[in-house]
Amino acid sequence: MSNFSGKVAIVTGAAHGIGRATAKLLAADGASVLVADVNDANGAKVVSDIESAGGKAVYVNTDVGKHEAIRNCVDQCMAHFGRLDYVVNNAYWSARGTVEEMTEEGWDRSMDIMLKAHFLMAKYSFPIMRSQGGGAMVNLASVHGLAADRAWGVYDAAKAAVINLTRGMALDYGKYGIRVNSVCPGWIITDDVMPSDEVVSRAASIYALGRTGVPEDIAKVIRFLLSDDAGFVTGHALVADGGLTAQLQDSAANTVTSHILATMEKPA
User: Fold this and answer.
1) Fewer Cβ close by (within 10 Å): the C or N end of the chain?
2) 121: closest CA among 85, 70, 164?
3) Could you tell me the residue ranges of all domains in the chain?
């Protein structure tokens, strides 16, 4: 088990899904966690769960699509905990449609949350990490950063950009002891996905492991990348997709992926 005692982490999109699982896992391993989200009720519940288990956490309402909200998030972290060692950029929102169907506002909001937020979180957290002698960031990309799907152009573009932004930041900040990696999950069953039994069954026939992922699968990967066990890993895009991208894809696979993504709720 990793030991994050005395360390502090910000996890965005931490009121549900992968973010919630990550916040709880890091707290269980000794980290103090700032739970950042826009869902106040769920965010407070995550903090309560962590504290009930003996951990330390605080919730800060944070719309990562807004510059000042990110700055405030980092400021609040320092005010509450006095340091910042890890950032997990997990918050998600995406418009859907072809380039003809998508609005410019949908494109901009998607890019603000899925890409620009990573840049801004690094802008305000890296100076703190540098002054402390190092730190680590994990950015949530996707298998959609490695391949595309129909009518998900902005999601595909943002996730591909996250992978290369991660590499660039790793090169710029490695000399300060700051490691930056990304994770590329396959389909993960979270609060945002309401799969039918048919979709789950079809997905199980496509994934090499015979199942879709759960949030804890990705949380454990994130924990590894933040930990000292990954001390020589930076600029890497770690694929955690149950073997999905290891195989040739066919039309059936693409159809299942489209059905999966169509079930995702899109928070405001």
Assistant:
1) C
2) 70
3) 8-262
